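This protein record is not my work; I was only asked to verify it. Where you disagree with what is written, explain briefly why. This is what I was given:
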Amino acid sequence: MNMKELSKSYLIERFASSAEAGLPMGIRLFLLLMVLVITIMLGVIAILIIAGIFTAGISESERLVENELNHTTAEISRQYGELSVQAIEFAKQLSQSIEKTSQQLGIPVAHLQEHPDKLEEVIAAQFDLAYLSLQKSKSSGIFFILDATVNPQLYNAQYSKAGLYLKNMEPNIISSSAPNIIVFRGFPSIGRSNLLSLDTQWQMEFDIHQAPYYHRPMEAARLNQELPLSRLYYWTPALTLPETSGEVMLCSVPLIDSQGNVFGVCGVEVSGMFFKLSYMPHQTFFNRLFCVLAPQSGSTLDLSQSLVSGGYSVRNIVRNNSPLLITKNERSFYNYREGNNSFWGLHTPVRLY
């Protein structure tokens, strides 16, 4: 037997003896220790998950957002309730004042549409009441619309109505000495007589072609003559008035004379800027926290009829008039999605009536 055969036989025997002996003791102890450590770590992680340690941050965030939501909801309900009361009181006083002015002119208030030449005098006589009511309400605007037009012979005259609309351009600034009030709708002579400027989007009359704030309160009052004004006022969703660019919410109340005749509407305005400044989130922990007041239909929020305050991350979606689809996340928050855009948050109904 030569040396090569001896060496080969020796290597085979060594390999066989090593296989029979198994892994070295040091390696086996090391592997056992690793298994023990991994088992302990998995146990600790399971305990932390059960105890909610890993979700504590999300739960705390949800609590902060929920507190902000509850606070804002209460503020909106309170302020909108006060504005509703102011609008109802304005309607009572204005109805009496217009009826009195019409009687002095020898015109029944229900027949104002038959005397377009008297409308300017009747409307101008209500300026002081409207101006003082605007300041008292602390809203961004006040208006009244009569069921009459100055130009009944014009094309589509049935959609044009006379009235007055005053806007406070700085409703959040306490400045009773020099409020920044302008004429948005109404006779230009009223602005000149009272040293008020006309708005850049001024028009003399109201376009009521698609105006739920005009039609709904009047229809409700005519169909339910026994109901008080507190049951007949109407809050619109956010809308954009014809030939304007800014969103507003309007609270409108029917105008009713002493004989029960409905001859117009009046109300107050909440502009998009007024809403934004009034309901800025108080929580500064989240830089992009925002508030949306929008109609909810099933599992969607209609951003085309919404007012927004706070962060600007939602504005692009608002411009697209796209609804947000609401889904509940597995652990916390709701998800609001539109296409590739997604937000986490909470929502709750708001009482406006």
Summary: The chain has a mean pLDDT of 87. The two ends are 110 Å apart (CA to CA). The CA atoms of residues 35 and 184 lie 78 Å apart. The first strand starts at residue 141 and ends at 146.
